[in-house]
Design a protein that fits this description.
Radius of gyration: 62 Å
Strand order of the largest sheet: 3-2-4
Shape: flat
Distance between the termini: 40 Å
Number of strands: 5
Largest sheet: 3 strands, antiparallel
Order of helices and strands: HHHHHHHEEEEEHHHH
Strand content: under 5%
Oligomer: single chain
Length: about 700
């Protein structure tokens, strides 16, 4: 594209043609006008050509960027789409080239048609300079794009290095943090073996104590199992049966006692329930079936009375609403009567005012009328071609204020020694026209007419509303006559009947509930008596068995048997106590681990104290190896960080020099463009003078 720009410049110089954009006189020839028209077409084609070059360059840059990023399916699709954009831009550039050459050829033909050698000479020089300027502008555009790319490359490179440096610093910080943790963990592990007061050593010591307690409980449980499975069976069935019979005797005695207590409680509750039932029934005897029937009938009556009360209450509510509506309509009728009286009273005043304003309007439509006399309670003369009307204030304290005659329409007309005041003052002159509101007779007539019409309309509406309300009141009174005057008494009677029915229903329900409770207590008494009799019979059987077996068991055997049972109880108690101690010690371990350690449970693993100590020693060796590896990783990361920082410095130094050179070249090219444009303008001016002559 850059080569094409140079070809255009060469073509322009070879053609020795020129173009101009200066204004000319309206009286120039048709040939000259054609030149200017084609000159405009040439400039437009030239602009399109430059824009097409820029569009193609931008499309290529975007296409290359997408190709660099085309690692995912979507990026690849975007790159393919942009490749089409590059092709379209190239086609647009070719079309722009053709249009530019066509415009150049047409302009050449038009200039030659003028037969002005001088104009053609200056036009050729102007066109040559313009061609050079186009080439230089194309060069500077390319240089600026290169500078932008270079700046972007520098920024991207520095950004990449900064990002890598930041990530490397994070990596070093993480490694150093891990090293500190590893060293702390190593110290904790070493303290387990060397410092009895350390948390780890205390945990191991507690676990040793737990091991010892578990071993003791294991021996106790073994002894209990030995007594139960071997020694007790050696005494034979008689001793076992004798001990069981004695146990049965005690159990049946307790069962008898419990049954007697339950029986006494049930009898007491039955007496209280029967008394409560007598209170409810008034001492009358009633069966459960009759009580259920009474409850059903009472519920039916209650529902009927509630429905009757709701109906009469609803009717009373309707009556109350009707009374309120009558009161509301009556109040509106009173208000409308007052309103009609007020309007009719004011209507005569408005009619008189209307007649006055109409006569003034008929006499002089453009004259003026005072519509508001103001606070001074006196009107001036608005038709005297003056803005003042002075009058002598006779008494400023009277209501209304009294004024004298005549009226003066200028200060010059006032009597000698007259004094004018800003407010009404007795014995002084005051301008009563100052606070008047003045309108034309036409406006005053319109206002009076509107006020009169509005009042008449309001009167008509008020009378219509009054007639409507009176009709509505008559209808409401007719509805009122339809209601029963004893409605309030009916409501109270219905309420009393409903309340009585509710009370009767609740009483019937309580009687049923009480009868059910009595039945349940009677069943409980029967069950308790049966349990008591069964317990007495079992007690007799157990006592007979004890008597029978006591003749078969000697005291020595029995004492030894009981001693073994007591031993089992003692061992079981000891096991339970030690198990509680073990639970407390395990809680201590959880407390210590929560306080300190970042050691896993595996650091204290093992089935006994010795195995756990060996596990600690192996953990120490592994931890030392981990620390050495982490230290090496930190050193390696720091070396990589130094290399990254140096790469960043080298990149910045290299790019700074290239950017400075390119910026200087751009400045030089732009300066040359400025000089060429000045020269081109000079040739264009000379060409215009030749065309105008």
């Amino acid at each position: 594209m850059k080569n094409f720009g140079k070809l255009v410049v060469g073509g322009l110089m070879f053609a020795s043609l020129g173009i101009t954009t200066s204004c000319v006189d309206d009286e120039v020839s048709e040939e000259v006008k054609a030149i200017y028209q084609n000159q405009a077409a040439f400039l437009a084609a030239q602009t399109s050509l430059v824009q097409a070059e820029a569009d193609l360059e931008a499309a290529k840059v975007t296409f290359q960027q997408l190709l660099n990023q085309a690692q995912e399916a979507q990026n690849a699709a975007d790159a393919a789409q942009n490749a089409l954009a590059v092709l379209n831009a190239e086609n647009a550039l070719e079309l722009a080239r053709e249009e530019h050459l066509k415009a150049l050829l047409q302009l050449k033909l038009e200039v030659q048609a003028t037969k002005s050698e001088e104009a053609e000479k200056y036009l050729g020089k102007y066109l040559a300079e313009t061609g050079i300027i186009i080439g230089l502008e194309s060069d500077v555009a390319t240089q600026k794009r290169d500078l932008a790319k270079l700046n972007a490359a520098v920024l991207d490179g520095v950004f990449d290095k900064d990002e890598a440096i930041a990530l490397k610093n994070i990596e070093i910080a993480q490694l150093e943090s891990k090293l500190a943790e590893d060293e702390s963990k190593l110290a904790l592990l070493q303290a387990v073996l060397s410092e009895p007061a350390s948390v780890g050593a205390q945990v191991i010591a507690i676990q040793k104590e737990i091991d010892e307690l578990k071993a003791a409980n294991k021996e106790r449980n073994s002894r209990i199992n030995e007594i139960t499975s071997t020694e007790l069976p050696e005494f034979g069935d008689n001793v076992t049966a004798y001990q069981q019979a004695k146990t049965d005797v005690e159990a049946e005695k307790r069962a008898i006692q419990a049954s007697e207590v339950a029986l006494a409680d049930a009898n007491k509750a039955l007496m209280e329930a029967t008394t409560e039932l007598n209170v409810l029934t008034g001492g009358a005897t009633i069966s459960y079936e009759q009580a259920l029937l009474n409850k059903t009938n009472a519920e039916t009556t209650k529902e009927e009375k509630e429905e009757a009360f709701n109906e009469v209450s609803s009717l009373a509510a309707d009556y109350s609403d009707l009374i309120n509506e009558i009161a509301t309509v009556s109040a509106r009728i009173t208000q409308n009567n007052v309103l009609i009286t007020d309007i009719e009273s004011n209507l005569s005043v408005l009619e008189a005012d209307y007649n006055v304003k109409k006569s003034l309007f008929d006499a002089n439509p453009s004259g003026k009328t005072v519509s508001d006399i103001g606070a001074d309670e006196k009107a001036g003369n608005p038709n005297d071609n003056s803005t003042v009307t002075y009058r002598l204030v006779l008494n400023a304290n009277s209501n209304p204020i009294s004024y004298g005659n005549p009226a003066y329409f200028s200060a010059a007309d006032l009597p000698p020694a007259a004094i004018i005041t800003a407010t009404p003052t007795s014995g002084r002159y005051f301008n009563v026209e100052a606070d008047d509101v003045v309108v034309t007779n036409s406006v005053a007539f319109d206002n009076a007419q509107a006020a009169l019409v509005n009042a008449q309309t309001d009167l008509s509406n008020a009378k219509a509303n009054l007639a409507k309300d009176e009709t509505e009141l008559t209808e409401l009174r007719e509805k009122e006559a339809e209601f029963d005057t004893t409605l309030t008494t009916q409501v109270e009677n219905a309420r009393s009947e409903r309340d009585a029915a509710v009370t009767a229903f609740e009483l019937a329900g309580n009687i049923v509930t009480q009868l059910e409770a009595i039945t349940a207590l009677e069943n409980t008494i029967i069950t308790s008596e049966r349990n008591l009799e069964e317990a007495k019979q079992k007690l007799q059987t157990a006592e007979s068995e004890v008597t029978r077996l006591s003749a078969l068991v000697n005291d020595t055997m029995l004492a030894e048997y009981v001693a073994l049972l007591d031993r089992i109880d003692t061992l079981t108690l000891e096991v339970d106590l030690d198990q509680k101690v073990i639970s407390d010690l395990q809680g201590d371990i959880a407390y210590f681990e929560g306080l300190q350690l970042e050691l896993e449970a595996s650091n204290y693993s093992g089935s006994d104290y010795e195995e756990r100590m060996e596990q600690i020693a192996n953990e120490i060796k592994d931890q030392e190896v981990t620390i050495v590896a982490t230290t090496k990783n930190i050193a390696s990361a720091k070396n990589e960080l130094q290399n990254l920082e140096q790469d960043k410095v080298n990149l910045e130094e290299t790019r700074v020099a290239d950017i400075a050179d390119l910026e200087a070249l751009i400045q030089k090219t732009e300066a040359e463009i400025t000089q060429r444009k000045v020269l081109a303008e000079q040739f264009k001016s000379l060409m215009e003078e030749a065309l105008a002559s």
